Amino acid sequence: MPMKACKKGVLLVALCSALWGQARAEGTLTVGLESDPIGFNAAKARLFNQTTSNVALAVMEGLFAYDREGNIVPRLGLELTEADDRLSATVTLREGVTFHDGTPFNADAVVAHYDWITSPGSGINTAMIEPIDYVEKVDEYTVRFVLNQPWVALKSALAIDHMFNFIGSPTAVKADPEAFHRHPVGTGPFVFEEWRSGERLVVSRNANYWDSNLPHLDQVVFRVLPDNDTRNQSLRAGEVDVTPVPTPVQVVAAREDDSIAVHEYESSGALSWNFHHRKEPFKDPEVRRAVIQAVDQDALIKVFYQGTTVPTTGLFSASSEWHCEDLDWPSYNPEQVRKVLEEKGSIQFEHISTNTPAGRRLGAIFQHFFQEAGFDTTLKLLDQGQNIRAGLFGNYQVNIWRYVDFGGDPDLNLTSYLTSTVTRHDVDTYKPLLEKARTETDRARRKQIYCDIAQQFADDAVFMMPVQSTYYVLASPKVKDVAPLRNNLVQLRDIRIE
User: Fold this and answer.
1) Taking the model in full, what pTM does it have?
2) Looking at the domain that runs over 266-470, which CATH code has it been given?
3) Nearest one of 488, 432, 451 to 322, comparing CA atoms
4) Can you give the residue ranges of every domain in the chain?
5) Rounded CA gap, 135 and 145, in Å?
6) Residues above pLDDT 90, as percent of the chain
7) CB atoms within 10 A of CB 325
8) CATH number assigned to the domain covering 27-222+476-497
9) pLDDT tens-digit profile of 381-402?
10) What long-range pairs does 484-487 form, CB within 8 A, spacing at least 24?
């Protein structure tokens, strides 16, 4: 039966599905990216930004994943069984899966992946999965995660869309790590085709994907369009189908435009600014707190965010089950800032923002806040790649960052940021509390530990996160089945074009 006929009528669609065994993938989706990816060799990239993860997620997979309702579901792993002593867990693997280069997916591939990610010389920050001591092969399709302590968040850690869960072909990684950096090879619903730096990346449908019902697209083209206005204009012109990270003005305008669909997800993330705790003047927590209190959150939300988000009141949003009430959370307080400046005298620092239209505007707004409060500040603009490198290597006093909501168990976000060296803060303050929460099975007691951590974070003024991230994606109305934007990522596996 020709596939054109399959489009006509519900009964024919059902009949075609039965005859073909799966729905024929149709169409090309074009996604506008705000930057080039960093590269897909985790050991070389050291971290995956949002752009990199969006592409990697189409090509590579992990053992488990979160579905639309927030439940953990199987991917390359089928079942996780925890040992009685909670110091290990076995994962049964999906059989009959192959990587895009023909390499079999099996226990050896999983062991090779996590050995590579957690090796001391990888340069990857593995604090989030530190309880994993090692991974061993039990049989061809079973692996055992051996832990150095009981860890309630193990399955959640294996389910989040993070670089350490994107399993690549061990053959490709070992044979040519440099080539893998530019051309990732996974088991995912799409096969990587090409990357023209500064222009585009292309992935095509994996005809041998283990889920015969997916994907629904023939091809995805990622166009590199750093300018927000260009991405928005391309969407309106029909040249782009999906545009992540729109400006607040564009979100507000899109809400009034029937030709654009707005997809929204309230997260516990935030646009943040890192203080370098080992550099003056930010060795002093009073100074850090005063800088936070110089930011008028309501004005920022009105002027820049156009009412599309809300102030932070803690490390978890009000919609989260882990949200803590009644924290002493630093907020706009110009009188307290004046007291600190009177006591300490002139305070000078340079703050970094990104050299994009939105980044320049945001940098100018914060420059106004800081100078209005009495700080002696200068604004430095860097492109996104330079800003990431500045953060990784400590070449900043204050730089703009994203406190990304990884989703899943709160242990993952907090461990990632509070044991990270990016802010150069005293991580030993938080490690004991985080380790205690990792082993606590009672959710009420765990929540209290996380609230204690949140209050300590506020007291230390670890970094500045004045407003909560509400994630938005603008899309053509023909783009259907857009999953919740966890981690601010567009899940391509289920998307279809109507």
Assistant:
1) 0.82
2) 3.10.105.10
3) 451
4) 27-222+476-497, 266-470
5) 5
6) 78
7) 8
8) 3.40.190.10
9) 999 889 988 998 999 999 999 8
10) 484/68, 484/265, 485/263, 485/264, 485/265, 485/267, 486/66, 486/161, 486/265, 486/267, 486/405, 486/406, 486/407, 487/50, 487/53, 487/160, 487/161, 487/162, 487/404, 487/405, 487/406, 487/407
